[in-house]
Amino acid sequence: LLIGGGIFDDALGGGLTKNLSLLGKTMSIAKSGSSVNYWTENLDKIAEYAPNQVLFAPECDLENGVLSAFNETKTFIDAFNTKYPEMQLTVVSAIPSRSLTADNEAIKAYNSSLEDYAKYINLRYVDVFSDLYDGSPYAPAFSGVKNLSYDGYAYLNKKILTAFGKYYETSGEWGDYGMF
Length: 180
Known about the structure:
Elements: E1 2-4, H1 6-9, H2 11-14, H3 16-19, H4 36-41, H5 44-47, E2 53-57, H6 66-83, E3 88-92, H7 104-120, E4 124-126, H8 129-132, E5 142-143, E6 147-148, H9 150-163
Parallel strand pairs: 1-2, 2-3, 3-4
Antiparallel strand pairs: 5-6
Helix pairs in contact: 6-7
C-alpha cells in the first residue's frame, strides 16, 4: 500500500503501482499535498486495505523548520509501528524541488535525520533524494517544479524494487533493463 504525498499520488497516472508489481498487489491511497499529520490522524484508513507492507512518501513541510518536519514524521512512524506492529513500514525520502524558493539543503537535512532515525529503529528507508540532487535537482528526472518525469518515476521504481531485493542492476547505467 502506497501512502503519503505527491510522488505516490502523481504516480497513479504514471503507472507506478503497475511497475511495482514485483512487490505483489500494490495500490495507492496517497494524496498530493497531504501533510504527515494527515496520515498520523488517519492511520485507521490503512487497516481498511489490510496490507502486509506500507510504503510512505512523506511531503515534508519545512515551514516550521527541519526539526519540526522531522518530529512530525517521527510521530507518524512511531504511531504506525504502535498501531500496526505486524505490518512492515518503508519510508521513502522526500525529493528535491526545482522551485526557486525551495530550500533543498533543508530537505537534505530532513532526509538525513529521517535516515538516521530509520537506522536507529531498524526501519527500511529508501533514499531517492541523493541521486536526484547534487547542488541542484537533476533536471531530466523532473516534469515541472516538483513532479517527477517518466524517467524520474522509472528511477523511483528502481530504487524501491532494489530496496526490496526485486531489482538488480547489471551495468549500473541508465537504461538498464529498459527502466530509463
